[in-house]
Amino acid sequence: MQIKPYAVSKLPFSDLFKNYCQQQNKILKFFESPPFDDKALQERANDFQFLGNREVATEFLTDFNKKFGASAKSLHNINRLKESNSLVVVTGQQLTLYGGPLYTIYKTLSAIITAEKYEKLLNRPVIPVFWLADEDHDAEEISEIGLLNQDDLSSCKVNFEMSEIRSGELPLGDVIDSFRQCVNDRLFETDFSDDLWKLLDECYNSSRTVSESFGMLMMKLFGKHGLVLAGSNSDLVKNQVADVLVQSVKNQKEIYQSLSETTDQLENEGYHGQVHLTESNLFYITDNNHRAKLKVTDGTWSVEETGEQWTSDELIEKIKSHPNRFSPNVFLRPVLQDRLLPVISYVAGPGEVAYYAQMKGVYELFKQKMPQILPRFSATIVESAVDRIFDKLPFTLEEYHQRIEDLESQFIEKSDKPDIEAIFGEWKQKVNELTDQKKEVIGEIDPTLKNSAGKASAIYFTELDKLKGKIYRSLKQQEKTQIDRISKIKSNLYPGGNLQEREIAFIYFLNKYGLDLFDKLLNELKNEDSDTHKLIYL
Question: pLDDT tens across 237-246, in order?
Answer without folding.
Answer: 999 999 999 9
